[in-house]
Design goal:
By secondary structure, the protein is mainly beta. It contains 1 helix and 28 strands. The strands form 7 sheets. The chain has a 4-stranded antiparallel beta sheet, with no helix packed on it. A hairpin with a 6-residue loop joins strand 14 and strand 15 (250-255). The longest helix is centred in the N-terminal third of the chain and has 18 residues, at 4-21. The relative contact order is 0.10.
């Protein structure tokens, strides 16, 4: 016979085993009572900015999934032509339910003063899908507030993630479409600071991301891309910046060469050289590399001193390598963080797209994965969610012509699950994000 103490222990162990068995080794579902057991690991957000609402063109829609690919909730944009879901991101939970919150950009929303394409940003509760608050820019026509959004990490060191919003069409003191970036408190939505483009037509803020804490001061920093910096189409040099999250002052900037479109994509790379400082990755889709014209490139820079750590080049002419970049953590368990880069066109004749995951240690390819179908543009967007890589292919044709598709890949390249868009030409997969980022 068991004594009372032994019985209590056995019951406790059995209860834990039953609770744990609900989840597989890759995380469980955010459904029912399980949600409190799996705080932030299981949320994936997909944007379809051209989704047609009820009799409304290009309203836009987002979809939120568990890590197993089960739908949690979805949300339509407010109005026709909002392009709701053009950009998506997640931020750490601040409502106390243990689930990350969702940030969504709608850059074509008509502004408060009637400006078309002024833009709006929404923050939703990640568990319920209920709107928590909205953010608006100046309302200036063509500002495109929300063209890019990202969690900023914790830039004010209050324990909560903050929000970066890019407005590449903002007409500032430097001229038309010089661009602007807004940084808000995620908890209070207070505007912490703004950053402005340097020149006419820079499109500063067309890409934004958290950089992590590149200067190790205890405050997260931010990355901003201005891919049209310098010259005029098609000879944009491009520039990427890192700003101090605490002060808003510039820490680094890097420039491309004429025609590179450097800064088309930006992301935190994690610590790729294992020196204790977060590093940065920048895509330059129009670089004429060893493979030919517009093959594209991506570059990793040290957070410690700004030096170039790795340069990667596309292997196909007109491939637009570097269209999407992402830090993916240490996928091969060698203590060095790794990165993913898309080559979403491959070449001008097929456009099925591909992604590569590269070792942060030595730059070698860990994974190469090509799209399934002609023209799907696999690699339109990339996000790392735990031990899965989420990849968008926004022109995939399945049940709906160019309805889009999203793939959840294991690190061996096998597809764990995939989901097609449910509306023709919706650009499902144009943007993806997930937690942990």
């Amino acid at each position: 016979m068991f004594d009372k103490k032994t019985s209590v222990i056995l019951v406790s162990v059995l209860a834990f085993a039953i609770m744990y068995s609900v989840f597989d080794s890759e995380g469980g579902d955010l459904t029912g009572n399980q949600i409190a057991t799996d705080p932030t690991r299981n949320i994936i957000v997909v944007g379809a900015p051209n989704y047609n609402g009820v009799s409304a063109q290009n309203t836009g829609k987002i979809y939120t999934y568990s890590k197993k690919g089960n739908i949690m909730w979805s949300q339509l944009g407010e109005n026709a032509v909002d392009s709701f879901g053009e950009s998506v991101s997640v931020m750490k939970d601040f409502t106390g339910d243990g689930v990350s919150e969702v940030i969504v950009g709608a850059p074509r929303f008509v502004g408060l003063i009637g400006g078309s394409n002024a833009g709006r940003v929404y923050v939703f509760d990640g568990r319920t899908g209920l709107e928590i608050y909205t953010l608006d820019g100046t309302g200036q026509q063509g500002e495109s507030f929300g063209y890019s959004v990202s969690s900023a990490g914790d830039v004010n060191n209050d324990g909560y993630d903050d929000i970066i919003v890019g407005s590449p069409g903002y007409n500032g003191a430097a001229g038309g479409s010089s661009g602007r970036v807004y940084v808000y408190s995620g908890l209070t939505r207070q505007l912490l600071f703004t950053l402005n483009g340097e020149n006419l037509g820079d499109s500063f803020g067309s890409a934004v991301s958290s950089a992590g804490d590149v200067n190790n001061d205890g405050y997260d920093d931010i990355i901003v891309g201005a891919w049209k910096f310098g010259a005029f189409f098609p000879n944009f040099f491009g520039r990427a910046y890192v700003f101090d999250g605490r002060t808003g002052l510039e820490i680094y900037h890097w420039d491309g060469n004429a025609g590179d479109w450097f800064g088309k994509s930006v992301a935190g790379a994690g610590d790729v050289n294992n020196d204790g400082y977060d590093d940065i990755i920048v895509g330059a889709v129009n670089v004429d590399g060893p493979a030919g014209t517009d093959a594209g490139a991506a570059y990793i820079y040290s957070g410690l001193d700004g030096q170039n750590l790795h340069s990667f080049y596309g292997t196909n002419m007109d491939g637009w390598f570097g269209n999407a970049v992402a830090g993916v953590g240490d996928v091969n368990h060698d203590s060095y963080d790794d990165v993913a880069i898309s080559d979403y066109a491959i070449d001008a004749s097929n456009f099925e797209g591909e992604i590569n995951v590269y070792s942060g240690l030595d730059g070698t390819i860990i994974l190469n994965k090509r799209g399934e179908n002609f023209g799907e543009r696999f690699g339109t967007s990339i996000a790392s969610v735990g031990n899965l890589l989420i990849v968008g292919a926004y022109e995939h044709t399945g049940a709906h012509p160019k309805g889009g598709k999203v793939y959840a890949l294991k690190i061996n390249g096998n597809t764990k699950w995939s989901i097609e868009g449910d509306d023709s030409y919706s650009e499902f997969g144009n943007s993806v994000s997930g937690s942990p980022a």
